Structure formats: structure tokens, C-alpha cells
Amino acid sequence: EADIYQTPRYLVIGTGKKITLECSQTMGHDKMYWYQQDPGMELHLIHYSYGVNSTEKGDLSSESTVSRIRTEHFPLTLESARPSHTSQYLCASSESTSVNYEQYFGPGTRLTVT
Amino acid sequence: GNSVTQMEGPVTLSEEAFLTINCTYTATGYPSLFWYVQYPGEGLQLLLKATKADDKGSNKGFEATYRKETTSFHLEKGSVQVSDSAVYFCALVTMNRDDKIIFGKGTRLHILP
Fold it and tell me: Which positions of chain A have pLDDT values less than 50?
């Protein structure tokens, strides 16, 4: 069973607020990812990291930022939330040396900005 | 570039029916292929995988065979259950420098009792 956690699971917040979505994994994985999932279920990679102090932007432009100060922790921050940020956010991790490249996913955070 | 195309949903079947969800891919090199499943209110979890041509991945009664000649990785199950209702994602990874996983758009499956 995957040991990757996301908090909060659900968040309703007003426009203009700063929010941080937490993601932690206990598997010692070097690689971590953030996906945004739209209502049609399609996944969009917005950020990824290859290890501590490594962060890269994904395929979908996002106003969010990420940090990777510790291997196990990969938080995502929105400085000023807007209704267009309403979505499901999924965090994932994988081993850096796995030839099968399996990604392990957290349960997701459903964000609603009013 | 690399891409994955899977059949659009939703797919609605009766319990015990045969399931096929089509998936084709475009990739340079020799990708590894995956099926992930997302149950309601959860994140994705790996269902099965195949890492080279002609490999068959299987799990929980689901199967998919890596067909290089047709660039396909169709998901099949002989007799579906209500508990199989979920969203299914086909995906690939190539041995490139960035090795990012490429997901299809997902297929929602509804199984009626």
C-alpha cells in the first residue's frame, strides 16, 4: 500500500486567500509530482521534482509554486486563490531508479475557491 | 511527441459483461505501458503494467497485452462487477531524460447491477 498523504482532503476558500496544499510520502522516493485534474477527469502535470532543491514546471502552466526542502515533503502554494483554481489536485511520487516508473498517488485535495 | 489515446467514455455495462477499453499510443523508443484506476474519491492506483512488446499485464481479472505492431494496450476483463466502476487511465513512460508519464484522458466505467 502506498504511503503518500495529502491534506486537506477538501478545502473551500475565498478569493484572494493564500493556501498551501500539503503532500508527504514515507517511501523515500526522490521524484514527486503535482497534477491538476479537471472535471472531465483528464490529468495535467503542473509541477515535478527530482529531489531536494529541485523543482520544475510541468506541461500545464500554473500560478502555483512548489518547494522541496525535504525528500518526503512537496507542498504546493497558491499566493492568491481565484475561482479558476477550483479543481482536484493530486500528488504522486516514484523511485528515481525504478525501471518500471510506477507512480504512487495520494488521495487528492479538492479545492473550491468562491 | 509521445501521446496516448483511449476510448472516450462513459462506458456503461451490465454486471458480468465483457469489458474492453481501447488504448493506442505514439512514442519514440520503447515505452513501458500502464493502466491506472481511480475509484470515486481516491487518487490513482496502478492496475497493471507491461514493459516490453508481447508482455501481458494482469491484475484483479483485468488483462492487457503490449502490442508493438499495432501500438496498442487494450484493457480487458471477462466478467465485470459493480465494484469495477471507476475511471481507467492508460499511460506510458519512455526512457527519456525527463521520463515523465504520459496519461490518456481517462475512461469512466459504470457497471449496472
Answer: none
Reported as a single tens digit per residue, the pLDDT across B25-73 is 999 888 899 999 999 989 999 999 999 999 999 999 999 999 999 999 9
Nearest to A114 by CA among A89, A78, A82, A76: A82
What is the end-to-end Cα distance of chain B in Å, rounded? 41
Residue B41 makes CB contacts below 8 A (sequence gap 6+) with A107
Å from B27 to nearest chain A CA? Answer: 16
Say yes or no for a CB contact (<8 Å) between B42 and A103: no
Task: Determine the distance in angstroms separating the CA of B14 from the nearest CA of chain A, rounded to an integer.
Answer: 23
What is the distance between the alpha carbons of residues B74 and B21, in angstroms, rounded to a whole number? 6
Does the beta carbon of A10 lie under 8 angstroms from any beta carbon of chain B?
no
